[in-house]
Amino acid sequence: MKSTDIPQIREWFKEYAEGFLTDDEGFNANIRLKIDHSYRVLDRMEELADALGLRGRRRRIALGCAILHDCGRFEQLKRHRTFSDFRSENHGELGAYVIKQENVLKDLTPQARNIIETAVRYHNARLVPEKLTAEQRFFTELTRDADKIDIFKVIGEYYLDESPDKDPTMVHNLEESPVISDTVYEHFMSDRAFNFEEMRTVSDFKLFQLSWVWDINNREALMLLEELGYAEAILSTLPDTDRGRAAEAKFREFMKKHTDEAHLGWTEISREKLHDCRIFSLYSSQRLSIENKETTAYMVDAPDWVTVVPKIEKDGKEYFVMVRQYRHGLMKITTEFPAGTVEPGEEPELAALRELEEETGYRAGRLTWLGSVNPNPAFLTNEFTAYLAEDLTATGSQSLDEHEYVDYELIPVDDVVKRMGSGEYRNGTMLMALMYYLRETGKING
Ligand SMILES: [Fe+2]
Questions:
Q1: In a domain, 446, yes or no
Q2: 308 has which bridge partners?
Q3: What's the Rg (C-alpha) of the chain?
Q4: Same domain? 423 vs 284
Q5: pTM for this structure?
Q6: For the chain: N or C, fewer Cβ within 10 A?
Q7: In angstroms, what is the span from residue 105 Cα to ligand 1's centroid?
Q8: pLDDT at position 278, please?
């Protein structure tokens, strides 16, 4: 994805959504509701992306998911005059169809396109399907989180609105009553899922809406919800009864448990570069705890690392393209997946493709993100990302740096799995890449 992709998608969205405006002001109000919601979900996604440290392509995919997540709403309203999926059609599915039909993502890579379409399709599903890849799952869950935060804002405004002509379809025409039904109360208090049919009153519905936070996927999203205070309107309009008060206490306890982390944090007072090496810099940093205790932390600031798991099939058997080289830390020769550092300003996936080709001469037709971690956040600052490379073609020539001596060979996948962690398979980051590969290919799961 390029940096111009998001402004372009935004531009398309504006033109497309506003194209549904008619001379019926009642209809237009509903169209505007979804336009405004989409822009706010985009704002929330920016904040979540900051909190999660998403950069480059992954940040742009997140923003694309946010702006497009509800693009099926407009066609839904035009066709059926309702936002009820139950009484019309699934607006997530419809949105994914619209994106394809309108060719909105034509300039993106097939992988990026697929991830955004998947997130739009499942942003409103009751459950995220099991079969998704790690990257599809991550962005689908993130989209659901950003969406939920804004839904809390919208429903909160409804509950605080005291005008008699507010639209009761927002609460599915349920009876306004302080009664919380037995089954709804029991389910809420024991963290169990609700059935929509069990709800009798608006108070039931409020508990149902509060229970959505049990399913928020990212802690950063819970923290953002807490910071924005969007659940307060529901909480403050819960019935003043034993059940209402117990439900509020349970909700607040959940939020406190998951968002109150001030006692764990440290603030940086100053930072000093102690040494500059070619492959990392060493820093010291003065840090202050919430109890005003001071300490010196030392950090190794290294560039981000990428590792590629290149898979190839030959005569019905699966192989990895592995590299052998001398490792200065260990002072031994190791067998590893091709890997390297991300250069300043370089997209990690481009670094992965470049390293693969430089070290093995193989070009990949397809690159799939497998996972990202911080290799040791105790003192290392950088991020490690693993990719699966497929549809390989051999160019037959490496292009190594002056001080690089690298051999490559095809090794059966089974051998690598069996031998990882022993003998020449000594590089710990390769184990992370292999774990991700096994997860992606369904050989291990939760
Ligand atoms: Fe939606």
A1: no
A2: 387
A3: 26
A4: no
A5: 0.87
A6: C
A7: 19
A8: 86
Looking at the fold, whether 154 and 287 belong to one and the same domain comes out as no
Residue 196, C-beta contacts closer than 8 angstroms, at least 6 positions apart? 208
Distance between Cα 225 and ligand 1 center (Å): 18
Same domain, yes or no: 321 and 366:
yes
95 CA → ligand 1 middle, Å: 9
Whole-number Å distance, alpha carbon 91 to ligand 1 midpoint, is 7
Q: How far is the CA of 83 from the centre of ligand 1 (A)?
A: 9
103 C-alpha to ligand 1 centroid (Å): 20
Same domain? For 411 and 289 the reply is no
Q: Which of 197, 227, 257 is the last residue of a domain?
A: 257
For residue 402, tell me if it sits in a domain.
Answer: yes
Whether 139 is in a domain gets the answer: yes
The pLDDT score that the predictor gives to residue 401 is 85
Residue 92 alpha carbon to ligand 1 centre in Å: 6
Q: Please tell me whether residues 347 and 217 are part of one structural domain.
A: no
Give pLDDT, residue 195: 76
Task: Please tell me the distance between residue 136's alpha carbon and the centre of ligand 1 in angstroms.
Answer: 17
Q: At what angle do helices 110-122 and 56-68 cross, to 10 degrees?
A: 40
Ligand 1 centroid – CA 252 distance (Å): 26
Q: Are the C-beta atoms of residues 336 and 359 closer than 8 Å to each other? A: no
Number of domains observed in the structure of the chain: 3
- Residue ranges in the chain whose pLDDT is less than 50: none
Using the mean position of ligand 1's atoms as its centre, give its distance from the Cα of residue 166 in Å: 21
CA–centroid distance, 40 to ligand 1, in Å, is: 13
Q: What angle do CA 264, 267, 273 make, to 5 degrees?
A: 125
Minimal CA–CA distance to 337: which of 364, 303, 301? 364
**What pLDDT score was predicted for residue 4?**
77
Range of the domain at 19: 5-257
Q: Verify that 20 and 132 share a domain, yes or no.
A: yes
Residue 446's pLDDT is 59
What is the CA(352)–ligand 1 centre distance, in A?
35
Residues with CB under 5 A from ligand 1 (ion): 70, 124
DSSP string, 1-22: --TTHHHHHHHHHHHHHHTT--
* Ligand 1 centroid from CA 348, angstroms: 31
Residue with tokens 């490379």: 389
| Whether residue 411 sits in one domain with residue 332 | yes
445 domain-assigned = no
Query: Is 235 in the same domain as 369?
Result: no
Host H or E run for residue 296 = strand 294-301
